[in-house]
């Protein structure tokens, strides 16, 4: 094949490459739009929405929440995560997080999982973050092992800061009334 034939073939295929490139651009823009929409919708979630989320969606929410606090956040694999759902990094600290979106109080198993994850990921700290409260055995084990338990109220306070104080007070008032 001579250079002239090769050049003519490439010129003829230019139109095809233009269409392929355009389609790739459209697909990329579509996916970016979906990701932006999903992220902004997650960001606006209140505690009542979190109570209805799937566990993996809660992990995605926490990723966005902690990124807003300056952490570099990695989600661990959905299976074989060695007891951590997220790994946070900031100021030479590495924190493993076990995320528990439950309908009832969190028990000792979540604390046991994150203790194992702390060693596996060589983390400096270990947290369990939940939309609920913790059983007394979970609290005792966490204290004995230096695990931070992020309570429902602490999560709600982080959410208010995350939303620049725009979290609806109605959901907090309702939550307080339900506890009392």
From TrEMBL:
> This protein is called what?
Restriction endonuclease
Which residue ranges does the record assign to the Restriction endonuclease type IV Mrr domain? 50-157
Q: Name one GO molecular function term.
A: DNA binding
Q: Does the keyword Nucleotidyltransferase apply?
A: no
Question: Which organism is this protein's natural source?
Answer: Halolactibacillus alkaliphilus
Which keywords appear in this protein's UniProt record, sorted alphabetically? Endonuclease, Hydrolase, Membrane, Nuclease, Transmembrane, Transmembrane helix
Q: Enumerate the Gene Ontology biological process terms.
A: DNA restriction-modification system
- Residues crossing the lipid bilayer are 16-37
Pfam families attached here?
A: Mrr_cat
